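Take a careful look at the sequence and tokenised backbone pasted below. I need to know what the token row says about the fold.
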Amino acid sequence: MKALILAVLCVCCFAAGSEDDRLPNKCEVCKFLTMELQEALEKTGRSKEVLEVGEVLETGKRRRKIKYNTSETRLTEAVDNICERILQYNVHAERPGSLRYAKGSSQTMTTLKNLVNKGVKVDLGMPYELWDEPSAEVTNMKKQCETMLELYEEVVEDWYFHHQDQRLESFLCENHVLKTSERECLKEVWKGDMGDEETTVAEKERTTHDAGEL
């Protein structure tokens, strides 16, 4: 048991010690920004709500009606505080690359909490109540997300109104934000217990397709 605790604590100390050197890169920020925004839009994509816009006529009704799912209002609501959702992520130090950022507790933290629940004293240099607070890495990603969203606001709007036939990740990250040499994290897909480095069939096809275009 002592050896297990020591091993787990070593992992945690290593992760904490290297945190300043391992901040999210531009690829990772764009990846999770587009992932969250796409998800937020998908939740309202099938809405049949109709909005009345423009000046009010004598009848009390407005001049024109537009569908909510194609309106600027839907985009504005989705974008609003979208970077706050980044704070829901935790650092999974046992995973490589961008896969280290995911929602839910990491394997290391789950093990530590289980030890605490069994009465084992675990000292991480912070109160137990703060264990689930956003890390410096995640907080940094949130700040970068806000900056990126501000810089590429018009690109996001262009995609929303004219290019939704393309994936947002491809349109924003690949076409506008990242150089070819900076896109590696976009190919990384978490496959759970099947292995950190495995990718889905779709990702393999996309990788092959991208390689054929280069």
